[in-house]
Amino acid sequence: MPSARPYLRPTRRTLLIGAGAGAAAVAAPGLTGVAAARGSDVDTVLEWYDVTAATIGVITGPLQVNSSRTWAIAWIAAWRAVTRARGGAPADAALAGAVHEALATLVPARTAELDAALAATLDRLGPAAAVGAAVESGRAAARDVLTERAGDGLDLASVNRPFTPPAPAPGVWQPTPPGFAAAVQAGQGDGRPFLIDDVRAYLPGPPPALDSARYARDLAESRAVGAVESSRRTDRQTDVARFWAQTSLNGYTGALRAAVTSGARVRRVALVALFHAATVDAQIVTYAAKYRDLRWRPVTAIRTETIAPDPAWTPLITTPAHPEYPSGHTTYAGAAETALRTLAGPPAGPVALTSPTAAGVTLTYRDWRELTRDNIDARVWSGIHFRHTDEVGAAVGRRVAAAGLAHWDGRPL
């Protein structure tokens, strides 16, 4: 198996040159808008960030880690290509060539739009021989990374392999109402990470025992504030819950964009690459734990448990079709927070985000930790997780990302 780390060799000192986060996030434009961009004031990093976001689009949970992998491969290739270029137009061309090659290979249905975006970039950069050579260098970098990541177990079929639920028992996960859908992402925990070596080293301990005070407290909270008709949940809490019902990858695309708005080109490209590498690793770890512990969801516990069973209880948000512990959303949030704090520093200004699952709601954040806080609360207010599960997920994500980022350049951060 090829090493996961050789292409992550530029030092952290190089990465941090020109560090500084941007201000407010803006919605990523569609590819048609990107392809129409002209003028010397176009920022090629943001241009191809938005191309990548538009290529991935709005996704569902079963597509998330595969889509995160696409981001990571494309921007690791861009990082390699940019560090080999001499700056200026050739570096921009190398970036565009790398991202285009990776995305066209992994999302072939978008090739026409990607070709148009690349043509727009090259038209702006001009016909110099160095520009053409840099595009080819970027394409070669992408092919190298694609080869190295072949067979990593993060393709859709491997991630979403069939899973047979265990026999019903107290605490044990079962398909959940209303659709009682088959489990998804059962193979995700077997994927090959980008930055860490041993997934097992980052697995959390087991969830609280069913006869523990912590479990009883969390069960009562989820029952009270997570019900679809809850009188305890405020309007703001409902908005936050619905906002973060989107996939984490979509939710953090605007936040990461705010962090790459300004600074040295190589630092910004590396930030995108490392952010997605770290969050992929966190997603692998959390699903390894989910399918190890097979913990039941609140809806199953509340409807069937001997403690005041309520067969009609329904959560605010439909329960995802996979085990409960730990939370995938909060694991991602913890990893994202760590990557952003470590590599970008605090936001330079308020970061305003919107969500495809909460029309008309805008949430504004001034610290990366605030997104993690909202993710922890949101999954309880949604009625789909227990609070301890969310807190453990965030801790796992932070630990995975911190270890991965320390590992990639061979010394502690």
TrEMBL record:
Q: Where is the signal peptide?
A: 1-27
User: What species does this protein belong to?
Assistant: Micromonospora terminaliae
Q: Name the InterPro entries on file.
A: NapH1-like_2nd, PAP2/HPO_sf, TAT_signal, V-haloperoxidase
**Which residues are in the Vanadium-dependent haloperoxidase NapH1-like second helical-bundle domain?**
270-400
Lineage of this protein's species? Bacteria, Bacillati, Actinomycetota, Actinomycetes, Micromonosporales
**What Pfam families does the annotation carry?**
VCPO_2nd (PF22778)
Could you tell me which PANTHER family the record lists for this protein?
PEROXIDASE-RELATED (PTHR34599), PHOSPHATIDIC ACID PHOSPHATASE TYPE 2_HALOPEROXIDASE DOMAIN-CONTAINING PROTEIN (PTHR34599:SF1)
Q: Which UniProt keywords apply?
A: Signal
Q: Which Gene3D superfamilies match?
A: 1.10.606.20
Q: What is this protein called?
A: Phosphatase PAP2 family protein
Q: Which PROSITE patterns match?
A: TAT
